[in-house]
Amino acid sequence: MTGQSNKNSLWLFLGLGIVALFSILPLAGSLAAQGNAANPWTAPAAAKEVKNPVPANAKSVAAGKELFEENCLMCHGEKGAGDGVAAQTLSVKPADFADAKLMKSETDGSLFWKMSNGRGPMPGWKGTLSDTQRWQLVDYIRTFAKSAAEEKAPR
Ligand code: HEC
Q1: pLDDT tens column, 31-44
Q2: Which residue's C-alpha comes closest to atom 18 of ligand 1?
């Protein structure tokens, strides 16, 4: 081995390092973009199919309302439109439960999974609220799109 070939392999090494760096950069950028509001949030297929064992009725909706006012209203807002007082401080807008299109695209199982696990500023409630309480919340947040539609309907 001569000094010259050592020098050559050093340059080769540096060159490869630079190539590797530039191929990693776009990947790092796409990872940083996660948690963005434009990034769709979907529950796993199995979670979407889970059936709601707590039927929506006056009792479950009333229980859900109480839980919502205590734990969710500050971000999701009184009418569920994602405009609670704390929403302004967040980098991601809380979901708008009055949006009939969004709510139609979500199964009860999907809503349950999302509120259980959370994402970004949205806390996961699995450890804080019982299964029954989280299903009651599903029943309650479903009422927002209905009342928004009624408010818009011509009389
Ligand atoms: C600190 C603010 C905050 C609190 C408190 C909060 N949320 Fe959220 N929530 C968010 C944000 C922000 C998102 C949107 C997250 C995203 O898209 O990455 C969200 C999204 C959701 C979604 C997903 C909707 C969808 O279809 O994509 C559900 C369901 C939900 N929240 C339910 C609840 C419930 C129920 C509570 C109370 C037990 C609650 N949240 C409390 C901020 C909050």
Answers
A1: 433 444 578 899 99
A2: 119
